[in-house]
Structures are given as C-alpha cells and as structure tokens.
Design a protein that fits this description.
Number of strands: 15
Organism: Papilio xuthus
Family: Belongs to the OAF family.
Order of helices and strands: EEEEEEEHEEEEHHEHEHEE
Structural class: mainly beta
Protein name: Out at first protein
Strand order of the largest sheet: 9-2-3-4-5-6-7-12-11-13
InterPro entries: Oaf, Oaf_C, OAF_N
C-alpha cells in the first residue's frame, strides 16, 4: 500500500474554501471528546472549540493576518461553592503562525475516517502567559475577528502589554493606538515589590478573604490541533516531495490574570 494512503487526512488539490471539521479526540486521561475546527479563508482565521468534561467551554481563535490568538474560556458556576451564573474570559496573545496551519491549507483538508478517535502525534508542552492589563477596545483594534470572538467577555479580556509592540499597526492606525486603549493592572499586582511599599498581590489559591484582590490562574489543554504539514515522496509527483497530510500536536496553556476580588476567580481552588 502506498505511503500516502496511511495518513489520517488527505491534502487534496481543490480551491480553498471555508471548512468545518468535527474531530473525535482522546485527551491525556483517556477520555474521548469532540473538537470543532472551522477555517475561514476570507478572514484568514481558524477557530477550534470544544466542551471540556467539567463543563468549561473553550474556543481558540487564530487570526493569521493580524497575528493575534484569542483564547475564550466560559466557566460555569459551582453552586456548592456559592457561585452563580457563568464567567467568560478571553486572553489575547501574539500568534506564533508556525504553530497552527494556515486557513487556506486547512480548507483543503478532508477527513478520511470521521469516526476515528484521534491522538496528537507531538506534545508541545506548556505555554505560560502572565497578563498585565485589561485589553479594552484594543481587542477590536488589534483584530476585528478577535474583537467579535472576545465580545462576550466584556471587561474580562486580558493581554500582556509587552505584546503590544509586537503587533504591527493596522492600516490607518498608529502603534500608540493600542497602548492608549488598554488599562494596566495595579502596580502591586505586577510586582511583589512596589515603590509605595504596598505588598504584592497574592495568588488566589493562597487568599482566604473572598473580598480581597488576587492573581487568578486558569489552565487550558488543546488535545489535538493541526500544527504542520507532512510531505511525502512517490508516484503522484514523479518521485518529488508533495504535501500529503498534516502533523498534529497537543499543547497546554496556563494564564495568570488579576481580579479585584477572589470570588471573581471561579477557578481559585
């Protein structure tokens, strides 16, 4: 059997179109989950979303044109902890384009066996982000797609101010436009040692007073995503290399962010 028949996905010679794939994925605990991946060629974006077994909804958007990644997390309340409703968070980071295949390439993929349970080929480990500001209107300025994606989070959209200098100004905008729209966290939330002598803000896991501010964190693991293209050699291209499938990866994210009250950190335990 020829090599190219063994790959999970076939890279077909079709014109790029918008694509939606529903993937059965096995997580590191052995549980099977479903991921939905949507490639939008006209907007140059990819969205991967799934519902975790604990009820937390994850939606990851990558805007390739504007180099913005937006991770949206919807956390349901735990009634036994006295919580109510749900909380939507969104984290903006500079996108590493080499870590996710582009929408035009994604749109050419065809799933060979839709019922198969997928396991990522490579573990990319952890990526840790310590946010330093509320994004405000900067989300829409950085990326209209990310602005829409994060809109349900309202004032719970976070980023690192250090990333602002990495994003090139969009047409008709100045670099300072981004900085003018963000609101930095309080100084004592950014460093344990401040000039005014105030103590640094404690992690929420170490804070017993539900009314005090603290540093919350949340962890997200994307168990399977297309992170590169595979190349094969064979008869279809006269012995030369040709694109014949995808490489798949697993990555976990840990986000740290400031909250004005510990009870606003639904994942503090």
């Amino acid at each position: 059997m020829q090599l190219y028949t063994s790959v999970i996905f076939l890279y077909t010679l079709v014109q790029p179109i918008n694509l939606q794939l529903l993937i059965n994925v096995k997580n590191q605990g052995g549980d099977v989950m479903q991921e939905n991946i949507t490639a939008n060629v006209s907007e140059d974006t990819v969205i991967l979303d799934f519902l975790r077994l604990d009820g937390v909804y994850i939606s990851q958007l990558v805007d390739f044109t504007n180099e913005v990644e937006a991770m949206k997390v919807v956390i349901p309340a735990e009634e036994e902890l006295g919580q109510s409703g749900y909380q939507t968070l969104c984290f903006l980071t500079h996108a590493a384009q080499a870590d996710f295949i582009a929408p035009d390439a994604m749109a050419k993929l065809r799933q060979k066996n839709p019922g198969t349970v997928r396991v990522a080929e490579e573990d990319k480990g952890w990526r840790q982000t310590t946010t330093t500001a509320w994004a405000g209107r900067a989300a829409r300025l950085l990326s209209p797609a990310a602005g829409r994606h994060c809109a349900p989070a309202r004032n719970h959209v976070f980023l690192r101010t250090a990333d602002l200098s990495r994003w090139a100004p969009r047409p008709g905008m100045a670099q300072l436009s981004y900085s003018a729209e963000v609101t930095p966290f309080p100084a004592n939330a950014l460093s344990p040692d401040t000039s005014d002598g105030k103590p640094g803000v404690a992690p929420c896991v170490a804070e017993n007073d539900s009314a005090k501010d603290c540093i919350c964190h949340i962890e997200v693991c994307v168990n399977w995503y297309p992170c590169g293209l595979k190349y094969c050699k064979g008869k279809p291209q006269g012995g030369m290399s040709y694109r014949c499938g995808i490489k798949t990866c697993h990555r976990c994210y840990r986000y740290h962010y400031y909250v004005t009250r510990r009870d606003a950190c639904l994942s503090y335990t």
